[in-house]
User: What shape does this take?
Amino acid sequence: YAFGHRLTNQRGDDVYATTAKLTAYFRFPTLLLHGANNRTFHPRTLARNAELLRGVGTPVSAFMVSGHGHLDCVVGRTVHETVYPPMLEHLRGAVPSARPAAPPKPMALR
Assistant: This one.
């Protein structure tokens, strides 16, 4: 449910994205993508969400994708050109190495 610019339970209580929960659990580098032509959620929510997450200490990168609507950032025809490059850049910065320092040792079969 979305009620009063908040994610709420059925009673309208803001119990999911509280400052305490965000501070405790949302401490990883986060990339926010938002289509500039999004008619489901206003584009200004990108800045508001980035500000909220930065306020609780979450490292945030926010990227407005021009010419994209609500789902275009996921299934749009040009995501390989418009969305994937900043996404890959974010992942490369957030994950120092996807490879282990040494290959894993084989496990003995029992």
In short: Strands lie at 2-3, 6-7, 30-35, 60-65. DSSP finds five helices and four strands in the chain.
